[in-house]
């Protein structure tokens, strides 16, 4: 049984994001199957393809965030960078010294992280893009942020932006 299958709970009703997320899940499954058949060149090739896809996947979301009013150093983009750092290091260990254990150990956590990320940060991003009428193919917005808009440093959801604190007397 695969670590992760596409399900309605992952659908964001944002065609580009949903398609990219489905491709991620497919690559995750291919990597998982290759590792189950034995660590080696096949597993490494699928891992490299997963990492390459993820670089593009996160880059696309990061560009959309910047184009729609997020600060360059927002928590959603920082999380992308952290995950890529881990994926690249795991791939390096397998390629350079033949240590596939981190890859095997990483896959279940990656699948679990992905579900939470899609359902929180990516769901908030999809809602933000929809609210602005953002067209990903042209990067135009029907309802752009106001000129005096303060760039968002949070993720657009409640996962990383602290709740406002009541004023003290």
Automatic annotation (TrEMBL):
InterPro entries named in the record: Hemerythrin-like (IPR012312), Hemerythrin-like_sf (IPR035938), Hemerythrin_metal-bd (IPR012827)
Pfam families (alphabetical): Hemerythrin
Keywords for this protein: Iron, Metal-binding
Polar residues bias: start-end ranges: 158-169
Domain Hemerythrin-like positions: 16-126
Region (Disordered): 136-169
Family the UniProt entry places it in: Belongs to the hemerythrin family.
NCBIfam families per UniProt: hemeryth_dom
Protein name (record): Hemerythrin-like domain-containing protein
Species this protein is from: Ideonella azotifigens
